Structures are given as C-alpha cells and as structure tokens.
Amino acid sequence: MNIPKLLITSGAVLIVIGLVWMVGGRFLNLGKLPGDIVVDKGNFKFYFPVVTCVVLSVVLSLVAYVVRWFMK
C-alpha cells in the first residue's frame, strides 16, 4: 500500500467535496429535488429525500471508483 498516494488522493477528494459543498449549496438544491417525498399536514411533516439519496449514492460511488482507480 502506497501511503503518500493515499494521502494525496484523500486530500484531493476532500478539497473537491469542500468546493462542491460550498458552491453547490448555491446552485444545487439538494434536499429539495423533484421526486423527494414531502407530506405536510397540520402539525405533522414527513420528509423522505428519495432522489437526493440516489444522487448522493451515484456521486459517492463515482468517488469510490476514482479512489480505487488511483490506488492501483
């Protein structure tokens, strides 16, 4: 296992996540995407972010794929 390569890759991934979080919050409306389930009745509010979970799953899977590719 190549520790320097792992540290550089982890740092790059964290920088990308930070930038996406900072910039994406303004442009991407994660948590309120079409397809997210919201039931609001009186004092009861139920929220289940179906599409947001799918989007995050795809992004994290791509990140894991890239990290595994760099680890070869």
From TrEMBL:
Pfam families with a match to the protein in the record: DUF2905
InterPro entries named among the record's database cross-references: DUF2905
Transmembrane region(s): 46-67
Keywords: Membrane, Transmembrane, Transmembrane helix
Origin superkingdom: Bacteria
Protein name as it appears in the record: DUF2905 domain-containing protein
Lineage: Bacteria, Bacillati, Bacillota, Bacilli, Bacillales
